[in-house]
Amino acid sequence: MNTCRLQDFPSHPRSSRTTLTRAMPGRKKPQTILVIEQDHALRATLCEWLRDAGFEAIGEHTGRSGLSRILLREHTTQPINGVLLSMKLELCESRLVLSELRDTYPSMPVVVMAAAKQRVLIEDALRLGAMGHLRAPFDRNVFKRKCSAFFRDPDQSD
Fold first, then answer.
1. Residue 97 clears pLDDT 60, i.e. is over it
2. How are beta strands 32-36 and 82-86 bridged, if at all?
3. Are 108 and 85 in contact (CB under 8 A)?
């Protein structure tokens, strides 16, 4: 039986823990959402829907590449502001990515995606620190509305 241990998952260096920066005042940039989903077609669709909702969207196909993308953009003018994380990544990668994000970026909103029948995975992810979940199959309008609520920029007034 395979067991998952965080030390088995190659993570990025934690020596540069910093708060994610926001866009400069007066020049508002859209929130950047990272979609970590192994299915290419679904990842592309979700990124398109996020762009339609007013976000910048970036897709990655593995947890490792997603964590690398966050680290690469951490000190830029457009860091990653939130993550949509599939709970269907290989082995137990989703849980490890979520744990790594909670440890390294505790204030970053992470929303997990799973099928309704994967209730146990969703509950586990919420216990690990996900701020919410989206259940597949996705409805375009519901998806956009929920993402707008989950990833709303706290600096924007309502």
1. yes
2. parallel
3. no
Query: DSSP secondary-structure letter at 69?
Result: H
- Domains belonging to the chain, first-starting first, are 30-150 (3.40.50.2300)
Calculate the dihedral angle through the C-alpha atoms of 147, 150, 155, 158, rounding to the nearest 10 degrees: 80
CA–CA separation, 99 and 94 (whole Å) = 9
Residues 63, 97 contacting (CB under 8 angstroms): yes
- The answer to whether the peptide bond before residue 106 is cis (omega within 30 degrees of 0) is no
* Cα 18 off chain centre by: 18
The pLDDT tens digits of the residues spanning 102-111 come to 999 999 999 9
Judge contact between 95 and 125, C-beta under 8 A.
yes
Around 122, how many Cα atoms within 13 Å sit in the side-chain half-sphere? 12
Q: Would you say residue 154 has pLDDT above 50? A: yes
Long-range CB contacts for residues 131-137, cutoff 8 Å, separation at least 24: 134/84
- Maximal C-alpha separation, the chain: 54
What pTM, to 2 d.p., does this model score?
0.81
For residues 147, 95, 14, 81, the Cα torsion angle rounded to the nearest 10 degrees is 0
**pLDDT tier, 155 (very low <50, low <70, confident <90, very high otherwise):** low
